Amino acid sequence: MFGYIAINKAEMKFRDFDIYHAYYCGLCKDLKERYGRSGQITLSYDMTFLIILLSGLYEPPAEDSIRNCVAHPFQKHAARTNEITQYAADMNIVLSYYKCLDDWTDEHKKKAWINSRLLRSKVKKIEKTYPKKVKLIRDMLVQISSCEKANEQDLDKMAGLFGEIMAEIFVWKQDIWKDSLHRMGFFLGKFIYLMDAYEDIDDDIANACYNPFMRFREREDFNDYCKQILTMMIAECSREFEKLPILTHAEILRNILYSGVWCRFEAICEKRQSVNNQENKS
User: Do residues 121 and 97 make contact, with C-beta atoms less than 8 angstroms apart?
Assistant: First the structure.
């Protein structure tokens, strides 16, 4: 349920891409330094977006460095870190841990069980610093799992549960920006949950797994129907974003919110159309 909040590289300026990539590498750096290799593999675009958003809003002092990485061992990359990078790394670990637990409980994925064991002690440590946030994330994911088992068909309710998780994570400080950040995270969380369900719908039908879009799949306008719902979520998220006094990194953030989040959707549509064409030919 991660990786949907990414950039549209084709429409991004070279300098903006370098800055985005530096924050991405910075998150990777902090994950490895704070939580080792098992933490590093949880790296996500979604948390990179949060880092850039909060860095643009609060403008904390940053540290730039040049480093090698496992993915690109022969090429050095710029990495940018700050106190928000550390916060995002902590939240990323918590989300990944409970996602692994959910995958193990629901689908008995051995890899998920192994990863959850590797992350468990790290989450216990994070919980001491952010007890309220960890409890809310845990409680909401338990509710999501329970509702899925009960075959809950209310799209808004299901998406809203994950929305509450992201809303809590987006609120870094209890200050004048917390309400806008909370609403922004809430609608972005709903978007992530629904996009994940949209991408998995055919596999879930084939494997008799839960999916909140199940009863809508046979609609002739299924893709347009889903895009309309997703557009509503991003519109609300973007409305809150525009209320924030962000100048630093604003163009990067707009690239993601107004363009990048749709790249995956279009790729899913193209893949689905290609499959349909092949089936029609056969």
Answer: no
Q: How far apart are CA 262 and CA 268, in angstroms?
A: 10
Global pTM exceeds 0.85 = yes
Give Cα separations from 167 to 28, 50, 107, 160, 182 (angstroms): 23, 11, 27, 10, 4
Place of tokens 């609403």: 183
Calpha distance 82→98 (Å, rounded): 25
Radius of gyration of the chain (CA): 19
In a 13 Å sphere around the CA of 3, the CA atoms on its Cβ side amount to 9
Give yes or no for a contact between 19 and 139, defined as CB atoms under 8 angstroms apart.
Answer: no
One digit per residue, the tens of pLDDT, for the chain of length 282 reads: 567 999 999 999 999 999 999 999 999 999 999 888 888 888 889 999 999 999 999 999 999 898 776 666 667 889 999 999 999 999 999 988 887 877 666 666 777 677 778 888 888 999 999 999 999 999 999 899 899 999 999 999 999 999 999 999 999 999 999 999 999 999 999 999 999 999 999 999 998 989 999 999 999 899 999 999 999 999 999 999 999 999 999 999 999 999 999 998 998 888 887 777 776 666
Report the alpha-carbon angle 237-84-145, nearest 5. 55
CB neighbour burial string for 211-242, b if at least 16 within 10 angstroms, e if fewer: bbbeebeeeeeeeeebbebbeebbebbbebbe
What DSSP line would sit under 72-96, residue for residue?
Answer: STTS-EEEEE-HHHHHHHHHHHHHH
